[in-house]
Automatic annotation (TrEMBL):
SUPFAM superfamilies: PLP-dependent transferases, Winged helix' DNA-binding domain. Keywords: Aminotransferase, DNA-binding, Pyridoxal phosphate, Transcription, Transcription regulation, Transferase. InterPro entries: Aminotransferase_I/II_large (IPR004839), HTH_trans_reg/aminotransferase (IPR051446), PyrdxlP-dep_Trfase (IPR015424), PyrdxlP-dep_Trfase_major (IPR015421), Tscrpt_reg_HTH_GntR (IPR000524), WH-like_DNA-bd_sf (IPR036388), WH_DNA-bd_sf (IPR036390). It comes from the Bacteria. One of its GO terms (molecular function) is DNA binding. Gene3D superfamilies: Type I PLP-dependent aspartate aminotransferase-like (Major domain), Winged helix-like DNA-binding domain superfamily/Winged helix DNA-binding domain. Transmembrane segments: none annotated. In the C-terminal section; belongs to the class-I pyridoxal-phosphate-dependent aminotransferase family. Its cofactor is pyridoxal 5'-phosphate. Residues 8-67 form the HTH gntR-type domain. This is DNA-binding transcriptional regulator, MocR family, contains an aminotransferase domain.
């Protein structure tokens, strides 16, 4: 009986938040609802009481139950949102007091540098700390090979537009991929080729053909914790990529933006697989530290250093000294390693919960990459028909999701995927959000006598 009551309650609640029952409209009587749902009068009474406790409906003596006014309903729905869309850290997870201390210390230590234009490549002392950090992840480089950028987006923008030593001009990207990279390429009118990244990896025959025949300047890849899929390359895949890059003189831009969340100590980057001559290893600090600091670092091959020095200098003269100083102090003090460890544990716990709940509640055909392990993102596949309507219904029910449309090239065949992020969701929100997604997917199923397939093949 409890399940029956909850099911009826959710149906009525959904009709309210989706506008099928308008604000101010009177609800059917308790007797009519009991006949409609085939249940007792007491069940409907309890349903209405629960909805009244949620401030979705109210009673008028001797008149019945009514939906609350729109101006009262909207703030309520907005305060109960479940955020599967964000990629920026929850402010509550950031140790802001520690950052203030580091900022104050940076003001003291780097006061002289604030009034000058420092090295466009980055503060030498910070680059030395980055070398140590990269060494821990088997990326062995010198301080001369390290560049500090005003965020990873600046690095991607510069790399997309500058010439490379191989003299090639076309850029190969995974599909789907990080939208910021696609935006940088589009803004600069670069010639871009897409290659599908599936839950099972890459079509190696197609990749090698592109490397061999299509004048590929570089291949942009997110080997682990892929955005938006959340998938990984195997060690064999990484070694093969490094070997193909050298064989065909194609550079690899390895976006390892979530390396701090890696739980497998043996999971090395592509750069570690004898790829130093052709792999540009890029790290962001936005998911562990404050995104507003706008700091990223890269280890680049020797062949690229003079070109990148010039283009970095023309872009911004130098990255913010204060931001660099804060990161350096944060790293030297041990705060960075401590906080990264905490975030790894927190996000890994949330991701496991997302996987468990999704496998229990969602249709198997939706679990596109939900079986992945760790990181921030997973992708579910939704019906080809009524996809926009489904996203809107979820939004109306307080669940924010991110369709992956803009993570595909306009010329590349798109899949109807939703990226689910756990960066701003706790266990309760994950469970409630997946339950709502499951209910809306069920409602999206065709009800005609000759149903269409769930997905277009």
């Amino acid at each position: 009986m409890a399940n029956k009551k909850e099911s009826i309650q959710q149906i009525i609640r959904s009709d309210i938040v989706n506008g099928l029952i308008k604000p101010g409209q009177k609800l059917p009587s308790i007797r009519k609802q009991s006949q409609k749902f085939g249940c007792s009068l007491n069940t409907i009474i309890r349903v209405y009481q629960e909805l009244e406790n949620e401030y979705l409906i109210y009673s008028r003596p001797k008149s019945g139950y009514f939906v609350v006014a729109a101006e009262a309903l909207l703030p309520l729905l907005q305060t109960k949102r479940i955020d599967f869309a964000s990629a920026a850290p929850d402010p509550a997870s950031i140790p802001q007091i520690d950052f203030r201390q580091c900022l104050n210390k940076a003001m003291e230590l780097f006061e002289a540098s604030i009034f000058t234009y420092p090295d466009p490549q980055g503060l030498l002392s910070l680059r030395q700390e980055i070398v140590k950090l990269f060494h821990q992840q088997q990326v062995f480089s010198s301080e001369q090979q390290i560049f500090i950028f005003s965020g990873a987006q600046q690095a991607l923008h510069l790399l997309a537009g500058m010439p490379f030593p191989n003299g090639k001009t076309n850029i190969l990207v995974e599909q789907p991929t990080y939208w910021g990279m696609l935006a940088a390429l589009k803004a600069q009118k670069q010639t871009v080729i897409g290659i599908e990244r599936t839950p099972n990896g890459m079509d190696w025959v197609t990749l090698e053909r592109h490397f061999q025949s299509n004048m590929i300047k570089f291949f942009y890849t997110i080997p682990r914790f892929h955005n938006p899929l959340g998938t990984f390359y195997t060690p064999e895949d990484k070694q093969r990529l490094a070997e193909l890059a050298k064989a065909y003189d194609v550079y690899i831009v390895e976006d390892d933006y979530l390396a701090d969340l890696e739980t497998n100590s043996k999971a090395d980057p592509i750069r570690a697989y004898n790829g130093a001559s052709h792999v540009i290893y890029l790290r962001s600090f936005s998911k562990v530290m404050l995104p507003g600091l706008r700091i990223a670092a890269a280890a680049v091959p020797d062949s690229l250093i003079p070109l990148l020095q010039w283009h970095k200098h023309t872009a911004d003269l130098s990255t913010s000294v204060l931001s660099q100083g804060v990161l350096e102090i944060y790293m030297k003090s041990g705060m960075y390693a401590h906080h990264a460890k905490q975030m790894k544990s927190l996000y890994n716990h949330r991701f496991k919960h997302l996987r468990e709940i999704s496998q229990r509640l969602l249709p198997k055909e939706c679990l596109y990459t939900i079986q992945s392990s760790g990181g921030l993102f997973s992708a579910i596949r939704i019906p080809d028909s009524h996809a926009e309507d489904l996203v809107k219904r979820l939004e109306n029910r307080g669940v924010d999701v991110l369709p992956t449309d803009r993570q595909f090239l306009s010329s590349f065949p798109k899949l109807n995927l939703l990226r689910l992020s756990i960066i701003r969701t706790d266990e309760h929100a994950i469970e409630e959000g997946i339950r709502i997604i499951a209910e809306e997917l069920e409602r999206a199923q065709p009800t005609s006598s000759s149903p269409k397939p769930f997905f277009r093949l």
